[in-house]
Design goal:
- The chain has two domains: about 10-50, Arc Repressor Mutant, subunit A (Orthogonal Bundle); about 50-180, Tetracycline Repressor, domain 2.
- The protein is about 75% helix and about 0% strand.
- It contains nine helices and no strands.
- The chain has helices at about 10-25, 30-40, 45-50, 55-75, 80-95, 100-115, 120-135, 140-160, 165-180.
- The relative contact order is 0.11.
Length: about 180
C-alpha cells in the first residue's frame, strides 16, 4: 500500500481481533493495546476508528449477533412444511452447539455484559427479536418465543454437557413445543 493511503480493511481487522481476543481472554482481558497488536495496526488507529473500548466491544458483539442471525436465516428460510421447519430447528440447535467453542464463549461473554449493562442488554433484545421474527414466519409468536429460548438453552446444554443429548431427543423436544400449532 502506498504511503498516505489508509487500509480499507483496518476497521474490520480490529473488530475481528476484538472477538478473537474476547474468546481467548474474556472481556476483562481486552485492551486497546492487545487488540491493536492482534490486528497488526498502530495503537493510534484504535481511537481513530472507535471512541472508546465500549464502542468497540458493542460493535464487535453486534457483528457477532448479525452472524448468528444469518445462521438462523440459513436454516429457517428454505423450510416449508411444519416437519421441514422442525427439522431445520433441530439442525440449527446442533449446528450452534457443535460449532466452534469460540462461539459459545462469545455468547456467554455477551450475556454477562448484558446482565450488567444496558447497551448490551438492548443488543441482546434486538437479537432475540430478530430470531423470533424468523421463527414467527413458521410459528405463532408465543411458540416462537418458547422455541427461541429452547434453541438458546439446548445449544448451551449440548455444548457444555460431556454426553449431550442426541439428535432424536432434540427433534422430539422441538416437536413437543411446536406440535400444537
Amino acid at each position: 500500500m502506498a504511503t498516505g493511503q489508509t487500509d480499507p480493511r483496518r476497521r474490520e481487522r480490529i473488530l475481528a481481533a476484538t472477538l478473537d481476543l474476547i474468546a481467548e481472554e474474556g472481556v476483562a482481558g481486552v485492551s486497546h493495546r492487545k487488540i491493536a497488536a492482534r490486528a497488526g495496526v498502530p495503537l493510534g488507529s484504535m481511537t481513530y476508528h472507535f471512541t472508546g473500548i465500549d464502542e468497540l466491544l458493542l460493535e464487535a458483539f453486534t457483528g457477532y449477533a448479525d452472524h448468528v442471525v444469518t445462521v438462523f436465516e440459513h436454516h429457517l428460510t428454505g423450510a416449508g412444511t411444519p416437519e421441514e421447519v422442525r427439522e431445520a430447528v433441530t439442525d440449527l440447535i446442533h449446528t450452534l452447539s457443535e460449532g466452534p467453542r469460540r462461539d459459545l464463549i462469545l455468547v456467554q461473554e455477551l450475556y454477562t455484559l448484558a446482565a450488567r449493562r444496558e447497551p448490551y442488554r438492548a443488543l441482546c433484545a434486538r437479537w432475540m427479536r430478530r430470531s423470533r421474527t424468523l421463527l414467527e414466519l413458521h410459528f405463532p409468536p408465543d411458540t416462537a418465543r418458547q422455541l427461541d429460548a429452547l434453541i438458546e438453552g439446548l445449544t448451551l446444554h449440548r455444548a457444555l454437557d460431556d454426553t449431550p443429548a442426541d439428535r432424536e431427543l432434540t427433534r422430539e423436544t422441538v416437536r413437543r413445543i411446536t406440535s400444537a400449532d
